[in-house]
Write a structure and sequence with these properties.
The chain is mainly α. The chain is 76% helix and 0% strand. The protein has one domain. Helix 1 runs antiparallel to helix 2.
Length: 92
Protein backbone atom coordinates (compact mmCIF):
# COMPACT_ATOMS: atom_id res chain seq x y z
CA UNK A 1 0.00 0.00 0.00
CA UNK A 2 1.31 3.43 -0.94
CA UNK A 3 1.95 5.91 1.89
CA UNK A 4 -0.23 8.57 0.32
CA UNK A 5 -3.15 6.14 -0.08
CA UNK A 6 -3.52 5.86 3.70
CA UNK A 7 -6.68 7.58 4.99
CA UNK A 8 -4.74 9.47 7.70
CA UNK A 9 -1.73 10.09 5.43
CA UNK A 10 0.95 9.26 7.95
CA UNK A 11 4.39 10.59 7.15
CA UNK A 12 5.79 7.15 7.92
CA UNK A 13 4.92 4.38 5.48
CA UNK A 14 4.03 1.92 8.23
CA UNK A 15 0.64 3.06 9.54
CA UNK A 16 1.01 1.04 12.76
CA UNK A 17 4.22 2.87 13.71
CA UNK A 18 2.69 6.21 12.75
CA UNK A 19 -0.37 5.55 14.89
CA UNK A 20 1.79 4.56 17.88
CA UNK A 21 3.90 7.70 17.51
CA UNK A 22 0.75 9.82 17.27
CA UNK A 23 -0.60 8.31 20.50
CA UNK A 24 2.71 8.88 22.30
CA UNK A 25 2.83 12.47 21.00
CA UNK A 26 -0.73 13.11 22.21
CA UNK A 27 0.15 11.77 25.66
CA UNK A 28 3.25 14.02 25.76
CA UNK A 29 1.17 17.07 24.85
CA UNK A 30 -1.47 16.49 27.52
CA UNK A 31 0.95 15.32 30.24
CA UNK A 32 3.37 18.18 29.66
CA UNK A 33 0.62 20.80 29.68
CA UNK A 34 -1.02 19.61 32.89
CA UNK A 35 2.26 19.09 34.73
CA UNK A 36 3.50 22.50 33.61
CA UNK A 37 0.36 24.21 34.91
CA UNK A 38 0.72 22.48 38.29
CA UNK A 39 4.30 23.63 38.93
CA UNK A 40 5.30 26.55 41.13
CA UNK A 41 9.05 26.27 40.44
CA UNK A 42 9.94 28.09 37.20
CA UNK A 43 12.62 25.58 36.19
CA UNK A 44 10.22 22.65 36.47
CA UNK A 45 7.58 24.62 34.60
CA UNK A 46 9.98 25.24 31.73
CA UNK A 47 11.02 21.57 31.74
CA UNK A 48 7.44 20.33 31.47
CA UNK A 49 6.62 22.91 28.80
CA UNK A 50 9.57 21.50 26.84
CA UNK A 51 7.98 18.04 27.06
CA UNK A 52 4.76 19.59 25.77
CA UNK A 53 6.54 21.27 22.84
CA UNK A 54 8.36 18.07 21.88
CA UNK A 55 5.00 16.30 21.78
CA UNK A 56 3.66 18.96 19.45
CA UNK A 57 6.65 18.65 17.14
CA UNK A 58 6.33 14.86 17.14
CA UNK A 59 2.63 15.17 16.30
CA UNK A 60 3.44 17.40 13.31
CA UNK A 61 6.20 15.09 12.13
CA UNK A 62 3.91 12.07 12.12
CA UNK A 63 1.17 13.60 9.99
CA UNK A 64 2.96 16.12 7.78
CA UNK A 65 6.28 15.31 6.18
CA UNK A 66 6.75 18.93 5.13
CA UNK A 67 6.62 20.16 8.72
CA UNK A 68 9.89 18.57 9.81
CA UNK A 69 11.91 21.67 8.87
CA UNK A 70 9.42 23.88 10.71
CA UNK A 71 9.63 21.58 13.72
CA UNK A 72 13.43 21.89 13.72
CA UNK A 73 13.18 25.68 13.62
CA UNK A 74 10.66 25.69 16.46
CA UNK A 75 12.92 23.46 18.59
CA UNK A 76 15.84 25.84 18.08
CA UNK A 77 13.66 28.84 18.95
CA UNK A 78 12.28 27.08 22.03
CA UNK A 79 15.80 26.23 23.22
CA UNK A 80 17.02 29.82 22.80
CA UNK A 81 13.99 31.34 24.51
CA UNK A 82 14.16 28.80 27.35
CA UNK A 83 17.81 29.64 27.96
CA UNK A 84 17.11 33.38 27.90
CA UNK A 85 14.24 32.98 30.35
CA UNK A 86 16.37 30.81 32.63
CA UNK A 87 19.24 33.29 32.67
CA UNK A 88 16.82 36.18 33.22
CA UNK A 89 15.13 34.36 36.12
CA UNK A 90 18.54 33.59 37.73
CA UNK A 91 19.36 37.31 37.82
CA UNK A 92 16.29 38.14 39.91
Amino acid sequence: MDCCASPLRFCLCDAKIGLRLAVIAAINIVYGAFCSMAQTDIKRMIAYSSVNHMGMRSWDGVFKCESISGAALQMINHGVITELCSSWWADL
